[in-house]
Amino acid sequence: MIKVTTMLRATAFLAVGIATAWLSATGNTAPPDGLHRSHPESAAAHNVVYPLKVSRNGRYLVDQRNVPFMVVGDSPQSMIGNLSLADAAGYVANRKAAGFNALWINLLCVGYTGCREDGTTFDGIAPFTTPGDLSTPNPAYFERADAMIRLAARAGMAVFLDPIETGGWLGALRANGEAKARAYGRFVGERYKSIANIVWLNGNDFQTWRNRSDDSLVLAVAEGIRSVDPGHIQTVELDVPRSNSRDDPRWRPVIELDSAYTYFATYAEVLRAYNRTPPMPVYMVEAGYEFEKNLPFVSKGDPPILRRQAYWTMLSGATGQFFGSAYIWPFATGWKSHLDTPGNVQFGYVAKLFAPLQWFRLVPDQTHKIVTAGYGTFAPNANVASSDYVTTASTPDGRLAVSYLPAGGTIVVDMARFAGRVRARWYDPAKGKYQPVRGTPFRNAGKVRLRTPGKNADGDADWVLVLSAP
After folding, report:
1. Assessment of whether the complete model's pTM goes beyond 0.85
2. Backbone φ/ψ region at 263: left (φ over 0), alpha (ψ -120 to 50), beta
């Protein structure tokens, strides 16, 4: 991530559990209210059977039992470099208890990503016995990394593991050359191929991917991994201020997951990836982080901004997303008292809303057949705080639709699009609580005007509308 200004503020310690009722799907017939029907073996997050793979329709991730996997991720990028094993265990336990099911971790870490400039750990362990030489991996360093990755594995959490992030290590790749880069990829691929919970996340602020030489170096690592570890999904994060993985056609044969990255309104970048063919699951790898202002045109990372990013993402066809915090990605001073911040808690309410629903069957309503008026302006270049665009997604069977109204107001809903009488509820994204819509249930005929119920629990205008039919 490119840091221009970091805005820190004190916050009250808030503790909350995120509901993670990860239930299995049951074919084409949705139960009432768009809920999953559970199999006897319905899986909670900690029962995911790794490795992850792509669903048959190419739209979302599933585990080995084909149970849909919604990425609920945190971004402890510098964990290997900056934490002791004891602190890492405490952090992982906190995130597991909070309901996170994925962690973004950089295998190598330098000053750019919050670690020491020479790439050594906080207690002086170097990743290579000859500094910067990828052909000389230090067993002590990688044993430390192994132990941290296994902490997440024991907690049942996916690790999006960046083998050599390009924000800080691109210079080393250039110095080593393509053959050593490929050999390093084979080394890490062989080392971690038996750890089932890994997804390989290449890149990271890869601003020079259009330079063919630089791109070839990073691809060489990915291809080296793939040559010995074809069983783990790969993806790549490209450049800011916005990108998705398939912007670089050279990566398309290597990746199975599209990483959307933007500091603008998130719906635009996710939909751009979603609309590409053939289908490929897309997730939001990085948007604005809590307590940060990443670029001049980005609003500060406070809860209203974070909520917009998160709900827009989930209603634009994503298979999930990563949360980030200025305290956590580098494990800055005071990080332990900033684990359960307001933005983090409200990110949990996103999971609480979508986890029991058939989120994986939601199709973005890009032609406004459900919400026919009042949906604001689609603005790809909009500052997150200024966009009023209402994202809506629905299941093809007419049993579920969800809309996010970032600026509140009135929308018009075509009730004839539903399979039966429509139960309508407002969901407060600042509190994680439902309240009924006046007049519900509605006949599945004609159009109905619905207005948000004033301010939410934070005193802001945004609300989520959940419409369900039996």
Report:
1. yes
2. alpha
